[in-house]
Amino acid sequence: MKRLIASTLAGAMVFAGGAAWAQDAVTLQLKWVTQAQFAGYYVAKDKGFYEEENLEVTIKPGGPDIAPEQVIAGGGADVITTWMAAGLAARERGVPLVNIAQPFKTGGLQLTCLKETGVETPEDFAGRTLGVWFFGNEYPFYAWMAKLGLETDGADDNGVTVLKQAFNVDPLLQGQADCISTMTYNEYGQVLDAGYTADDLVNFNYLEQGIGMLEDGLYVLEDSLEDPAFADKMVRFVRASMKGWKYAAENPEEAAQIVVDNDTTGAQTLAHQTYMMSEVAKLTAGSNGALDPADYEQTVATLLSAVSEENPAITTEPEGAWTHMISDQALQ
Fold this sequence. Notes:
Belongs to the NMT1/THI5 family. This protein has helices at residues 2-17, 39-46, 49-52, 68-73, 84-92, 139-148, 170-173, 187-193, 228-250, 252-262, 270-284, 293-304, 325-330, and strands at residues 24-29, 55-60, 79-82, 97-101, 109-114, 129-132, 161-164, 179-183, 201-205, 217-221.
């Protein structure tokens, strides 16, 4: 497939060099709602980076009832942001997603516990209730529990109770769970905003626990890359998006304001988005947009180390799930 993409992409470049580009439409489906997690894309649009690449980009916010993998499969988007575990799971189930760029170098997923519960290390999880996000976000959790040798069918001496956590921190604040899922750039800040201090909390970062899984990457359908015009659009889209991410990291307060201005719900506050942008910048640091194959292999190895009925992300080694053909052209 890589040879095919290279050939078609080269053809598109030759064509583009001989004629002025018309503004091409691109629809991006986000994994979640409008927030600084996606600041690079909103900044690229607001600062005119997409327009400079002759792109008209529509950014579609996500939400609890929106699965980006289903949206792109149904033709509702050209490109999506999602976590690699979810992308690989969708690919194994017949949605041939391909990672074309990886703006997030590291991940922000963690398990946050109240120190007063007595949880100090992962060895203290047995007998506890742990809050877990689903809809494709549960794969890292089940891989971790498998690595620890903990069952997930109920709290006992060798198991935990899994609480299906909504996308808020209420289970921790209301005492329904000993630990909950948080992102460093969002829910963790919400716990702090609720009045707890960092000294009141114990955090277990998945990466630090050896459960390395790539988070927000850019994915397209494999067949679409065979179209030279589409591949050319993605080159320009990735180039402008990474310019947006660089600008956002260097100008976090302005980026946060741009995010707030694009939030049509009015739910986001400048203070929280500024906090989020500062934390997200830590995750994008070190990435120029190209996927590091070592990070991909770590994600796959982690998923395959814990295959079970509860954790059916992937069951076999994926093939053709990423390419550098777009990022090589975009970032040269």
